Amino acid sequence: MERKAWENLAAAHTLLRGEEPCSNAAASRVYYAAYQACWAAMVGRGMEPPEVRPGSTYFPHAHLPHEARQARVLDEQESKALAGLYDMRVAADYYEDEDVTVEEVRDALAVADSLVRRLLGEGRRDE
Questions:
Q1: Cα–Cα distance list, 108 to 2, 42, 45, 56, 70 (Å)
Q2: Three-class SS state of 41
Q3: d(C-alpha 48, C-alpha 40), whole Å
Q4: CA 5 to CA 55: how far, in whole Å?
Q5: Are the CB atoms for 37 and 115 separated by under 8 Å?
Q6: Distance (Å, whole) CA 10 – CA 15
Q7: What is the structure's pLDDT at 127?
Q8: Which helix (H) or strand (E) segment is 1 a member of?
């Protein structure tokens, strides 16, 4: 999951560059970067994702902010931030009449960038 977290972080940066930034697509990548970094950190603490259906394991999105806080992977503020990134991703991906703004996504990217670097270290810089 670490590689995917870094890849999604880099993709979010790329999607916000240029003359026509892709804010909705970037919002999704921002969330997934944070989600996957959190997943990696939880596995690093010995927590395996549950089997959601036969042969498919992952941490359910709606519960992860709370579970990561309970596992002390995230503090209260970070847990709320991850929940906010999730809400933004859902709006960007599924609400036909709602777009996230470039400014909202840039703010969210700063949050995700900080989370990923804290959880996974400073080793990669893919922007």
A1: 19, 22, 26, 29, 23
A2: helix
A3: 10
A4: 22
A5: yes
A6: 9
A7: 41
A8: none
Instruction: Supply the pTM of this predicted model.
Output: 0.91
Q: Which DSSP letter does residue 59 get? A: -
Task: Name every residue whose Cβ is closer than 8 Å to that of residue 8 and which is 6 or more positions away in sequence.
Answer: 29, 30, 32, 33, 36
pLDDT mean by block of 10 residues, the chain; 127 residues: 96 93 96 97 91 88 93 96 97 92 97 96 57
What is the three-state SS of 85-123?
A: HHHHHHHHHHCCCCCCCHHHHHHHHHHHHHHHHHHHCCC
Main-chain dihedrals φ then ψ at residue 57, nearest 5 degrees: -120, 135
Place of tokens 């847990």: 79
Only one residue has tokens 């709606």, namely 62
Q: Could you tell me which of 97, 79, 11 has the C-alpha nearest to residue 41?
A: 79
Burial class (CB in 10 A: 0-12, 13-18, 19+), 46: exposed
